[in-house]
Each structure stands twice: as structure tokens, then as C-alpha cells.
Amino acid sequence: MKFDRTTSLTLILVLGTALTLAALNQFTAPGSQFHVPTYVIALAGKYLSFAVLALSVGLVWGFAGILSLGHAAFFALGGYAMGMYLMRQIGTRGVYGNPELPDFMVFLGWKHLPWFWHGFEWFGFAMLMVVLVPGLLALVFGWLAFRSRVTGVYLSIITQALTYALLLAFFRNDMGFGGNNGLTDFKDLLGFSVQADSTRSALLVITAFFVCATFLVARFLVGSRFGKVLIAVRDTESRTRFLGYRPESYKLVVWVLSAVMAGIGGALYVPQVGIINPSEFSPANSIEAVIWVAVGGRGTLTGAILGAVLVNFGKTWFTGALPELWLYALGALFIFVTLLLPKGVMGLFERRAGKPEAASVAREATP
Q1: Does the model's pTM come out above 0.90?
Q2: Alpha-carbon distance 305 to 6, whole Å?
Q3: pLDDT at 317
Q4: Mean pLDDT of the chain
Q5: Which of 283, 78, 307, 72 is nearest to 315 (CA)?
Q6: What contacts 100, CB < 8 A, 6 or more positions away?
Q7: What are phi and psi of 292, to 5 degrees?
Q8: Beta pairing partners, 183
Q9: 362 burial level (CB within 10 Å; 0-12, 13-18, 19+)
Q10: Helix crossing, 326-340 with 283-296: angle to 10°?
Q11: Could you read off the pLDDT of 326-346 as tens digits, one per residue?
Q12: Which of 190, 228, 218, 209 is nearest to 82 (CA)?
């Protein structure tokens, strides 16, 4: 796979920024003007975790034409898998000192660890669940939906119903996932304190590597012959079907891949924010992810990353300075982008460069 200028700049900016922030946090004195506070490291890590989610949404919406309003479900499932591993690492350091049961289970009077919690004391098993659980859910859901040829707004509504159903389920205390409070009070990750500055800096860099990895995987996919058929399905599904292709198969593959990507983003998110609860399933989170992609530029992978970072940076500022106006600002931003910047922020750069990213990706797939 050849790297064009946009791809190279994306990789350099993501990795370079993460490495620079981590280095300034670790190797400068706290009183120095060059020192990066720990909260900035945590925020940057959170933004990059959201960038992985944005990439997953951008892949299915921008290149397959599937407007998902439920990708927060896959993100949250990956986060819960990581949270369950982190809870099993607390051991006797919990409030109740029970080495087997998390504190919320002791509080609710549980006597035994539920069967679905077994295995999460091992990091490898937990990471397998991070990709397996969202992937299997996406496989079952996608097979049923695409086989039935559900498309357009109907598919979007069904995806939103899926994440809302999971939201209601995980709110229940008897589900065994912490109910309304979720999972929190994490201590260690692979033996390293999740509260330590060095661990937070390392997580930021690891998250940046995963952003680049998922970006390259998505770019390889859409730049291949598979990607050209996928774009054809997006633009004219009936004609593509008439030519002998099976659009539902192509949709299912990219749908499952995007769910796995979202799950990875959720797993990276949890140790950096220190909590996972049912609110992560909220349909509003899925809608925000769509807005990130729209702001950055639908049909451009770089735009998904850019939109996630820009919108969440604006959210951090707005919710701190003018919290009551954030939702209005978000709605106004979406309307502004839809009416005046239909290709998002990346459209401005592409107009100046004269070479859209989607065109350059498609050109790579030409034999």
C-alpha cells in the first residue's frame, strides 16, 4: 500500500503529537513552562479513543453508505470487557476486601462470581472479548438486517433501538455489570497503576498507535478491489447486485470490522477515564459520533479522526465555560456543516489541493 501525502501527514501528526505530549509530561519538571499536566494527557487519550470510534463510523457510513446510530453499543461493549479485567485486578484492595467479588456484587449480596466474569482475570482473555463480543453482536445483527435488505433510515432506526435496548439492560443491577454506577475504582493494568503519570502517558502513546493501525487497516480495505465494490454498493446497490455481486456480504464484512474497531476504541477509553457505565450506550453518543464524521468529512478517513478531535476539544471547552449552551452549539455545528460544508473540514483542504482523499484511495486500488 502506497502512502500518499494525506496518509503520511495523518500518521505523523497522530503519533508525533502523542509522543511529544508524553515526553513533555515525563521528562520535564512539573513547574516548567514546557510541562504537560496529567489531565491534558488523559484528555488527549480520550480524544484519540473517540477517533477510533469515529473511524469505525466513517468506514461504514462514508464508504458503505450505512448510517449507523448505534455504534456506541460496540464501543461500550469493548469498554465493559476492559472494565471487567480491571475490576478483577483490584483483589483485596476493594472497600469490602473480597478477592473474588467486585465491591458492587458484595454490596448487592452476591455470593458467587457470575459465569460470564470467569476468565477476565487474564489480560489475553479480556482482549479477546474486546474484539469477539462486539464482533459477534455485529455479525448476528448484520446478517439478519442485510439479509432482509433493510437499508436507509429503517436500518438507522434499528441500530439506534439496539443500543437503547442494551442501555436499559445494563442499567439493571441483576445483569451483573454494576447497574447504574457501572465499573470504576480501577487500580492496576498489567501490574502498573492506572493512576500513575507514566501509565497515562504510555496509554496515550498506545492509543495513538491503535489510531494509526485502525486507520491503515481501513485505508487498505477501501483502497482494495473490495473497497471499490463497497463504494459501488454505496452509490448504486441495485446495479451492483445486477452485475452479480452480493451487496449484503460486502456490507456484513465491513460492518463487523467496524464493530471490532469500535470495541478496541472502548477498551482504550476505559483505563484512561477510569469508569465505564451504561450511559456509554446512550443513543446520543452514537449520534455525536456521526457528527464527528460529518464535521471532519464523510468519505475521508482522515476527516473522521480530525472531526473527533475537533468536536471533543470544543465540547471540553464549552462544557467548562458555557455548559448550558453545549447542546445548542453541537446542533448548530451540525446544521452549519450540512448546509455550508457538505464535505466537512477535509473538503476545504481537498478543494485547495485539488485531489480528494476518496479519489486517491480509489486510485490505489486500480490494477
Answers
A1: yes
A2: 12
A3: 87
A4: 90
A5: 307
A6: 113
A7: -55, -45
A8: 276
A9: middle
A10: 40
A11: 888 888 888 888 788 878 888
A12: 190
Give residue-wise pLDDT tens across range 143-202.
Answer: 999 999 888 899 999 999 999 999 999 999 889 999 999 999 899 999 899 999 999 999
Alpha helices by DSSP H, the chain? 5-26, 38-64, 71-88, 103-107, 123-147, 152-171, 197-222, 225-235, 237-242, 247-273, 283-296, 301-321, 326-340, 344-353, 357-364
As a whole number of angstroms, the distance between CA 100 and CA 145 comes to 40
Kindly state the cell numbers that stand for 190. Answer: 498489567
Give the separation between CA 95 and CA 107, rounded to whole angstroms. Answer: 10
- Nearest 10 degrees: Cα torsion 140, 132, 79, 9: -100
CA-based nearest residue to 182, from 100, 280, 47: 280
Coil, strand or helix: which one is 114? coil
Q: What's the topology of domain 5-364?
A: ABC transporter involved in vitamin B12 uptake, BtuC (1.10.3470)
One-letter amino acid of 27: F
Residues 48-103 pLDDT 10s = 999 999 999 999 999 999 999 999 999 999 999 999 999 999 988 888 888 888 98
